Amino acid sequence: MLEAGNNSELPAIPGKRYFTIGEVSELCGVKPHVLRYWEQEFPQLKPVKRRGNRRYYQRQDVLVIRQIRSLLYEQGFTIGGARNRLQGDEARDDVSQAQQIVRQLRTELEEILRILRR
Fold it and tell me: Which UniProt keywords apply (predicted)?
């Protein structure tokens, strides 16, 4: 497992749809039992479970795990602090997405109004 002070780069994420817990462990530098624990602590982590309760992580899950790892091991956050930080990031993303949708709708409505005025 990579220690907090170890700054070696993590490997690139392959272009696969699903990853096993062992693959994610290697990609993120975290042991499988730690990944299972983080699933309980971070609601953002929800791997797909298939036959025999086997976990299959998607690319987004791997990115979230790397972010959690960075918050805990490199930035020194506690589990609770990292959880709050991730939830804050999600809220900002939601607001940004909503603003983008509103701008797009407004542009489309203005275009419709121009067509109707002709």
Answer: Coiled coil, DNA-binding
